[in-house]
Design a protein that fits this description.
Bound molecules: adenosine-5'-triphosphate, magnesium ion
CATH class of chain A: Mainly Alpha
Number of strands of chain B: 9
Oligomer: heterodimer
Helix content of chain A: over 70%
Radius of gyration of chain A: 18 Å
CATH topology of chain A: ABC transporter involved in vitamin B12 uptake, BtuC
Structural class of chain A: mainly alpha
Distance between the termini of chain B: 43 Å
Number of strands of chain A: 0
CATH superfamily of chain A: ABC transporter involved in vitamin B12 uptake, BtuC
Largest sheet of chain B: 6 strands, mixed
Order of helices and strands of chain B: EEEHEEHHHEHEHEEHH
CATH architecture of chain A: Orthogonal Bundle
Chain lengths: 274, 231
């Protein structure tokens, strides 16, 4: 396995994909703990579909994908949060509406631009070839921002996630926290979707948190475990996809995450009975 | 130490509180009673500044509030240890610092030991029983405040024995450490025995005075269910 890894690292594009992926995995795992616990994980799912729509529209218009994706995703993140908080609309219905609309727009744009070509395919399921040097820099900046936010804001994030009512009463304003989380999630999805694919990136947010909750009972434990598991699953998934060329990178990573989840469930069950 | 004057609150277009005025002196133990939907929780949230006020003022002349919210789904199935939960009560003392210092950790430890939750500190909060959870949340509230406790139905849903224990812990904080207590309760019969004063809320203040006066009032007689006892 390590020989394989060494071989992979000799390719510059794989190195870039690995670097971006490892950083994005860490970010999404950290965000995922709070999103899953607050039952906001569908927002990640919704945003990734919006990402697909935005990317294909950019492709059809022949502009740089990020210029379209970033503003659209930020607006959608706010919109999704709003819809979640308003009582007129049930949150998951709002996510489903936004997801389906984005895909419809995306597919229409794609067929206008000449059908489902390899570019569109790689937007959906990820491609390690597409990662540029700018993506690496972007991932690094994002990762640094999220790590700083989590280290310095750890206790507030805990209180905000655990009991927003109480956190609010203690003078931590919860509204900006929601916004910051939505924005960071949007940014993580934008940076990660080229490698992981828009259909699979939301798995990166949900899996590690759910797996870690099987293994640890403290918030600190879950946060750290989720980060470690996410990075490990990403590397293993990439190696698998390199070794078996029929597994796309994004799929490999999600399958590795699934494997970890099954193992963790088993461990959790054994621990309970044993 | 707490003065509420002509407080009005409207939520979702409906008036929930109207012209509520009362004041709590330092060291008093006040119970808020009233029908479901009478605005008791809303009053506490208005005191905390969590809901917008349509009118009136709330003045807290001294001290810091420790709050125990009405039982919610918060924390259900949440991976948090008891220690993490209690320590999060010190959040308000954090200011601009990112981490808890020795003072907060010592305070949390002291409170946990006093409330008998120190032994559970590594346990998962979500796996505690209802009574154990309330004990931990009381500890968190004691960490958060300095001398004013706002408790929203701390004993609802607990068995008689655990209820008794919790009353004792609150009483202890009140008597021995001088906490001023403002507690919402549906257990009116006990409320009148433990509290100095009763506030009966039903959109407005329907009664505010000593427990004895409440027991003697028509409203008190009715609400404590003694109107029908001789039947
Ligand atoms: N966020 C909200 N939006 C609209 N109406 C609300 C909101 N919160 C509370 N209300 C309404 O305000 C009224 C008072 O609610 P509150 O929770 O203060 O009652 P309560 O006295 O605490 O009741 P209970 O004894 O059941 O806890 C209720 O009619 C409720 O429907
Ligand atoms: Mg209430």
């Amino acid at each position: 396995m390590f020989d394989l890894l060494r071989e992979m690292l000799s390719y510059a594009f794989l190195l870039r994909a690995l670097a971006v992926g490892v950083m994005v995995s860490l970010c999404s795992a950290l965000l995922g703990v709070t999103l899953v616990l607050k039952k906001y994980s569908m927002i990640g799912d919704g945003l990734s579909h919006v990402g697909f729509g935005a990317m294909t529209v950019a492709l059809a218009l022949n502009v740089a994908p990020l210029y379209v994706a970033v503003p659209v995703m930020i607006v959608s993140a706010f919109l999704l949060l709003r819809l979640r908080q308003s009582s007129r609309f049930s949150g998951d219905a709002a996510v489903a509406i936004i997801s389906a609309s984005s895909i419809a727009v995306g597919i229409t744009a794609a067929s206008l631009a000449g059908g489902l070509n390899t570019d569109v395919y790689s937007y959906m399921f990820g491609s390690v070839l597409a990662v540029t040097r700018e993506d690496v820099i972007l991932a690094f900046v994002l990762c640094a921002a999220i790590l700083t936010f989590f280290v310095l804001g750890y206790h507030r994030i805990f209180a905000f996630t655990f009991d927003p009512d109480f956190a609010d009463a203690s003078g931590t304003h919860t509204r900006p926290f929601n916004m910051v989380f939505a924005l960071l999630t949007a940014a993580t999805i934008v940076v990660g979707m080229r490698v992981m694919g828009t259909m699979l990136i939301s798995g990166l947010i949900v899996f590690p948190a759910v797996t870690a909750m099987r293994l640890s009972r403290s918030f600190r434990g879950v946060t750290v475990t989720a980060g470690v598991i996410s990075v490990a699953a990403f590397v293993i998934g990439m190696i698998a996809s390199y070794a078996f060329s029929y597994i796309p990178a994004g799929a490999g990573v999600v399958l590795a995450n699934l494997l970890f989840l099954l193992l963790a469930s088993l461990v959790g069950r054994l621990r309970k009975t044993g | 130490m707490l003065k509420v004057e002509n407080l009005s609150v409207a939520l979702g277009g409906a008036t929930v509180l109207e012209n509520v005025s009362f004041s709590v002196q330092k060291g008093e133990y006040v119970c808020i009673v009233g029908e479901n939907g009478g605005g008791k929780s809303t009053l506490l949230r208005a005191i905390l500044g969590q809901v917008p006020r349509a009118g009136g003022t709330v003045t807290l002349t001294e001290g810091k509030i420790g709050y125990l919210p009405q039982q919610s789904t918060a924390g259900a199935d949440f991976p948090a240890s008891v220690k993490e939960t209690v320590l999060s009560g010190c959040l308000g003392a954090l200011g601009w610092r990112p981490f808890y210092g020795r003072a907060e950790k010592e305070k949390a430890e002291r409170v946990m030991k006093r409330l008998g939750v120190w032994e559970w500190r590594e346990r998962s909060f979500s796996r505690l029983s209802g009574g154990q959870k309330q004990r931990v949340l009381l500890a968190r509230a004691l960490c958060a405040g300095e001398n004013l406790l706002l408790l929203d139905e701390p004993i609802t849903g607990l068995d008689p024995l655990v209820t008794q224990e919790l009353y004792q812990l609150i009483d202890q904080a009140h008597r021995e450490e001088g906490w001023t207590v403002l507690m919402v309760s549906h257990d009116v019969k006990t409320a009148v025995t433990v509290a100095d004063k009763i506030l009966h809320l039903g959109k407005t203040v329907r009664f505010f005075g000593t427990s004895e006066a409440y027991l003697a009032s028509d409203l008190g007689i009715h609400f404590t269910g003694r109107c029908c006892e001789h039947v």
